[in-house]
Amino acid sequence: MEELLIIRDLNKHYDGIIAVDKVNFTIMPGTITGIYGDNGAGKTTLFNIISGFEKADMGNVVFEGEDITRKSVIYRSRKGIGRLFQIPRIFSDVSVLDNLLAAGNNHEAKYLHNYVLKPAAIRQNILKDRDKAKNILKEFNLTSKAGLKAFELSVGEKRLLSLCSLLMNEAKLLLLDEPFAGINEIAALQIQNYLISLKSRGMTLVMIEHDKTKLFELADSVYEMKQGSLLKKTSTSHANY
Amino acid sequence: MNYVINILIILQIYIILALSLNLKTGFTGLLSLCQAAFYGTGAYLTSILMVDIGLNFFTALFFAIIINITLNASITTWSAGRLRNLYFTLGTIALQIVFFGVIYNWQALTRGPFGIPGIPKPELAGLIFNTPLKFFILTLFFTASAILFFYWFAKTPLCKLLECTRDDEVWLTVLGKRPAYYKFVSISITVVFATIAGALYATFTSYIDPTSFTLDESILVLTIILVGGTGNIMGPVSGALIYVLLPEALRFVNMPDSIAANARMIIYALILIFIVRLKPNGLFGKFEIRG
Amino acid sequence: MIIQILINSLINGLLLALVALGFHIIFSATKIFHIAHGGIFVAGVYFFLWANPFVGLAYGIILTIVFAFLLGVIIEWLVYKPLFNKSGSENIALISSLGVYVIIINIIALLFGNETKILDNSIRKSLTLGEIIITKPQLWQFSFSLPLIALFLMFIKVTRYGLKIRAISDNPLLARVMGINTQRIRYIVFGIGSVMSVSAALLKGFDTGIDPYSGMAITLSAAVVVIIGGTDSLYGTIFASIMLAIIQNFTEFFLSAQWRDTVTFTILILVMLWRTEGILQFRLRVDEK
Fold first, then answer.
1. Has residue B263 been placed in a domain?
2. Alpha-carbon span C187 to B84, nearest angstrom
3. Beta-bridge partners for B279
4. Do the strands A221-226 and A229-233 form a parallel or antiparallel pair, or are they unpaired?
């Protein structure tokens, strides 16, 4: 099977401080990869470089065999790289359903003239997207909240909504920045189950997480990030802790 | 009777202006103080095309819209891409003041402070809109179209994306959408309706000069939508209604005309201050004004 | 001729610096884009105009300064403070400020009319040095604004309150944790800022006169120099004021007075677009620190 993401010799400095130091790793499709490490070890910077928010000083990011090192956030997201932030990002003043519809790819509806020229196509797309969105909401148990404004949701629900939006946008690779932070035990367990079911559907996940035990439970391979370097950990080394 | 009709025409011009600014500020979250520049460019372009080139009103309006979008919408979109919040608002003030400087000083084209007199009335297939009543029907047509358009547009997926641009641009890019494009759509639609309002104003008064398109006018239109409320149709319409009918109400309580103009602005600004404090989504609005 | 323009520019620049320094401390300590500063600017002059016949020149000026301080404090108390307590955004503060500006201007126009008022109608003596002419009001402007600026800088750099103002400007949260009474400092900032603005207005009123609407242009110029000079540097603001005054005066001389504001704002746009780093451009805050 071909690698989904290849990171080669990635380097990033800020005013002499090394944030990411010669990072190499590959991610196979349908796997969960976990990264842990201290604050300031460069985990979020690594995510920013993969999703395109920051440019690396050196090295390459290859996604599905294409070198995307110099591509924009938008290009990467259209290729299928999805990014979940630590503080969940949502469109807070529109409804939950509209959040998902906005994330969908209703290409015709983007252009004003299409409303005159191709109203049928737009209507069809809306119906299709609506079905898809409703299925996703059902899967994540958010159906009852579909009509609420997004800011009315709890933190855990907002994070789920972010995740749903990425699914709606047909992301293939999900970069999750501390998906369990700031929510209670039950909600965390719920999200954990959703992540496992996503994996079983062939989705690829990379996640940053403080809780090592949880990572070894969930992930296929685990890395520790320390002062910018990425070290592969096995479950045996975990036992030493 | 003509007096009432004239007030209704002015009212409708403000309704169109408020509705158009509402799309940009209420839906797309771009707090801007350059509505009078959009409106003034529309008025000047239509007048110049009609007086100097002799085009028909509707042809002139069409070209005015095209030129206005190319000029103002692209500049505003560009600055919206680079400046945020307060700095964007300041950028729009800058655009407004530069616009005023240009129409005041470029006398070869705009006749500067002397203004453009003798702007002909609109004409359609032999029918000249030269009486107040006929002109009222023409403005009613445009106002009704504007209301219907915005009513319809608010329900489209495109409009939802404008609202998403307001709520979180970073998230929009993560979902593979280009915020600058949606800002351009929003600002362009705003420019289209501001141009229509400008063209109606110019042909209604038959004379325009730079003093009608100052920063104060931009502040006024912003105030109208903030008092009425943003994000829906009712808000801007009621804001304009309150603004235009306030002097009539003041006349009703026997306030002399000489102080009515100032008293109106004082009352209006007081309403504005109380509204942002007590009811941030305006009298009839849907969204709060936020940073 | 060039020297004459430069001297005029220096004096105009110092006046602008007075307004801009007031705007600067308000903006950096409270993050409020205080458009109403322009309203206070004109309100001071009209207050003086009203008080002068009763109490004479010296007391008139003192009363006006007190009035300016109180006006600034009252605006903060009635308008901004409730928003600050509700943690309103900067846009809401800006809108409220526009409202206050509109109210002040219209009250003045209602009471005093729209015409330009000049405070001093006595015969203008002027100082002639070779080809250079310095009018008496200009001399006053120069000899009052320079010490005022020095006093202001001393207040900010040396005194206890100045230190607290700087602390709040740097990090309001930390300042509050350190036990600084933020609200009192805000009152002081608005008071002092308004006094600076009104001092400039009085000096201008003795020279070219003032009308209810002249506050907006100078406040916007002040905002421009604060942004060009950098919101973290008082000296930057003073320097930018003088530079902008030079540019404005040369524009008036070589083009016309009407191009003044256009040129000012073209410079603002260029600076905002050129300085893409720092305060001016929004950073993609993906880390949410």
1. no
2. 28
3. none
4. antiparallel
Domains identified in chain B, total number = 1
Measured between beta carbons, which residues in chain B are less than 8 angstroms from residue C280? 83, 87
Q: What is the pLDDT of residues A91-142, one digit of tens each?
A: 988 899 999 998 888 888 888 888 888 888 888 888 999 999 999 888 888 8
Domain assignment of residue B168, yes or no: yes
Q: Which residues contact B95 (CB under 8 A, 6 or more apart)?
A: B34, B37, B72, B75, B76, B79, C269
Neighbours of chain B (3+ CB pairs under 8 A): A, C
Cα–Cα dist B51/C282, whole Å: 44
Of B216, B280, B290, the closest CA to residue B30 belongs to B290
CB atoms within 10 A of CB A22: 14
pLDDT in tens, B205-236: 989 999 889 888 898 898 888 888 877 888 88
- Kindly state which CATH superfamily the domain A5-88+171-239 is placed in: P-loop containing nucleotide triphosphate hydrolases (3.40.50.300)
Place of tokens 């855990």: A156
Reported as half-sphere exposure (CB side, CA atoms, 13 A), residue C173 has a value of 1
Minimal-distance CA residue of chain B relative to C84: B277
Distance from CA of C265 to the nearest CA of B (A): 5
Q: Kindly provide the ipTM of the predicted complex, given to two decimals.
A: 0.89
Contacts of B52 (CB under 8 A, 6+ apart): none
B44 falls within a domain: yes
Q: Does C268 touch chain B if contact means CB atoms closer than 8 Å?
A: yes
Report yes or no: B40 and B212 within 8 Å, Cβ to Cβ: yes
Mention every residue, 6+ apart, whose C-beta is less than 8 A from residue A149: A92, A93, A94, A95, A96
Write out chain A residues lying below 8 Å of C285, CB-based.
Answer: none
CATH 3.40.50.300 domain locations along chain A: 5-88+171-239
Residue with tokens 């409202």: C99
Residue type, C123: I
Which chain C positions have a beta carbon within 8 Å of A44's beta carbon?
A: 286-287
Q: Do B237 and B147 form a contact (C-beta atoms < 8 A)? A: yes
pTM exceeds 0.80, yes or no: yes
- Select from C288, C108, C279 the least CA-distant residue to C205: C108
Domain limits for position B112: 2-213
